[in-house]
Amino acid sequence: MIGRFTRVLEGSPRLVISIFHPAIGGEPVKGIDLYAPCQAEAAKLLTEMGVDLDNLNIASVTTGGALAPKQEGYPVVLFSPGFGVERDMYLGLISKLVSKNYVVVTISAPHESVFTVFPDGSYLKQAPEMAELASSDYTSWSRLLHNRVQYINAVMNVLETLNCSDDAELAGLFDLDKIAVLGHSLGGAASLEAAKQDHRIKAAVLLDPSFHLIRREDVQSSVPVLLLRQEASAYREMAASMNETIASDYIDGQRYAFNSLNNAYFYRVKGAQHMSFSDIPLHYGDQHAIPVHAVTAEAATAFMEAVFCKGEVGRIFALQPGETVVPINAEGEPVGI
Questions:
Q1: Closest CA to 268 of 234, 316, 224
Q2: Degrees (nearest 5) of the Cα angle 203, 62, 201?
Q3: Regions of the chain with pLDDT less than 70
Q4: Residue 81 CB-half CA count within 13 A
Q5: Strand partners, 123
Q6: pLDDT tens profile 18-33
Q7: Which residues contact 116 (CB under 8 A, 6 or more apart)?
Q8: Which terminus of the chain, N or C, has less C-beta within 10 A?
Q9: DSSP 3-state of 63
């Protein structure tokens, strides 16, 4: 079973996090009820976007159940979503991580996300300037990247407080020696930057990150990184479906990351598109994301377990090239097949 708590981090901006954890018992929660107490507002907006609300029932999330006990606390995955994507619209992946005994903390991006619901009933729709943001406006995108890194930092700084609090639900929940950050798209770029800055973060998993936005400090980084890209991972493949300048800048950033990260593993996932790592395709009845979520969870947990167990990252990927995941070089081209 998968349980879920929500907590608010006061500050500017005010952030809300969801904490998904292994649970015993409890009452099943429908997908739309994850947005309580603003189910009506969320349902209206999602329906207007063409989402079938029954398709929100992706994973068996419960409420009121008991926390499955673990003496040392659970390894922690801080999850930063893609631009515009509500923080909990990754249940296909989250549920698989929790089933492997991880606690997943999803981090909101107020004003940027399609909507944000706070436990007190506050409801924020995406700011108009976010909906109209041009892909070529790198200045604004860089500002958003900075904000996302700050959000991850804010959650990192509060984990110890939550772990030692009088809150019976959270006390001792987190193994603070085993913290990874995982992000998709803009959240992937932010996850990399946060991991490079904060040594409390032991590993980073990047899902088709916004490499064209990453910072270039000309400093070698040894943070363990797993990159999982969409299948169209090379320039010629990307340029066929997006702005050629952005595709070129993306590959340039990917090349920089490949050469500046000393402990990184670059792969692409067969059949994956950019949004396949989220639940968005499933909301529209597109089932191709299901196997993508499965292989992403398997690769991510194998990677994190290797990092957390004596840092033996080099032994983890006996994954067969040419099957589900394919190693790629700095240009995004497949290698070893």
A1: 234
A2: 10
A3: 218-219, 310-322, 337
A4: 28
A5: 117
A6: 999 999 988 899 999 9
A7: 16, 86, 87, 108, 109, 110, 123, 124
A8: C
A9: strand
